[in-house]
Amino acid sequence: MNVRRSAAVLAAVAVVGAATPAAADPSPSPSQAFPSALYGGKDPKFDGVWRQSLALLAQDTVGVKPAAKSVEWLVRQQCADGSFAPYRADPTTACDAKTMVDTNQTAAAVQALTALGGHDAVTGKAVTWLKSVQNEDGGWGYTPGGASDTNSTSVVIGALAAAGEKPQQVEKGGKSPYDALLKLALGCDGDDAGAFAFQPDKKGKLAANADATAAGVLGALGKGMVVKPGEKSEATGATKDEACEDERTPERAAANGAAYLTKALAEDGHLTSALPGADPQPDYGNTADAVVALAARGDTGQAEKSLSRLEKNASAWAAQNGPAAYAQLIFAAHATGTNPRDFGGTDLVKQLNATGPAPQTAEKTPAAEEESDSDSGPFGVWWYVGVCLVAGVGIGFLFSGRRNRQQP
Question: Residue 61's closest CA among 360, 333, 379?
């Protein structure tokens, strides 16, 4: 699930200064390159709505109430037809045929705004638009009319489920999203048994893709980005020792995919990726997504082992890649019942909050409450969190793992 939902983008963190939590006009001011309501300091051209949605969803997941103007900024990014583009610098200008809307940004916004509540009109229009661009095979591509892919189909399934829809009943041409996912699941032959492909290649062949597999497992289970801690699936548990089965059901596909992920994670505890001409490197974004996918089925053994690996190694990666990366780690921590405020010594919530406007309210640990009570200054601890700057320069792919997907 990583940044499965948008285009691959270079991400370097330059933290936006703290802002008051009151609602404000989220349009850019002459003194800043991007809206003060936006999370992250990198150009939002390709991922503005995506990273904003993940940041707000992660805050809500840990009991933090986001800044009102940050929520308003996200709402105002919606086009009249219900879709969302990655970034509209002037939301007062109507969307037209040149506006590059996509299913991933739209589905992410639905998941975030549904969790926050009070935006039924916005999410309702977005869901209607998503249904209108469903492909005949039951799935979705990144852009309307594009060939269905596992990642896009899965993130839309998460949005439908969040909005109270039954994904299996959302059909086009008699096909549901689950029909599309099953066509993208590999069979049980070979080393890549049970994996999901992103899309078929030009010859129609399926190639295993770990990022798509993590997305496919969640989609086949009808889950979104946030999985309840310790939640157990009703599906029979597949483990790395259980044989893959070719039964073509969503539950079986999820079990097979989970077994593939378990095997892929077993050796090093993390997934890997490589840019052309470079040696393979740990892919912490895809690993976080895999942890969520395994936890969604109740396959907590490998999920907890890989989560531990992330605790030891992923903080620098998140600092380089910004809000969406912090959100991914928070989702992984939440799914395994791990405290995101003490993630290998890093407070992920504090770090996420520092990449954008100070939240209206922030969940406090006992230590934080004690510190706040003893503070004799005119401002509380969260004011200081808000103005703290976190700087990092790095190169990363916006969806952890979206490197393999087609770009809009």
Answer: 333
pLDDT digits (tens, 9 = 90+) for 203-222: 999 999 999 999 999 999 99
Residues paired with 65 in a beta bridge? 361
- H/E stretch holding 271 reads strand 271-273
Rounded to 10 deg, the angle between the 323-335 and 300-313 helix axes is: 140
Mean residue pLDDT of the chain comes to 83
Other Cβ atoms less than 10 A from the Cβ of 151: the count is 35
What are the tokens at 181? 């996912």
Instruction: Write out the DSSP string of 147-210.
Output: PP-HHHHHHHHHHHHHTT--GGG--BTTB-HHHHHHHTB--SSSTTTT-BBSS--TTS---B-H
pLDDT at 389: 33
Which residues have a Cβ under 8 Å from the Cβ of 151 and sit 6 or more positions away?
Answer: 1, 4, 5, 104, 142, 198, 211, 212, 215, 399, 402, 405
Q: Token pair for residue 208?
A: 């295993």
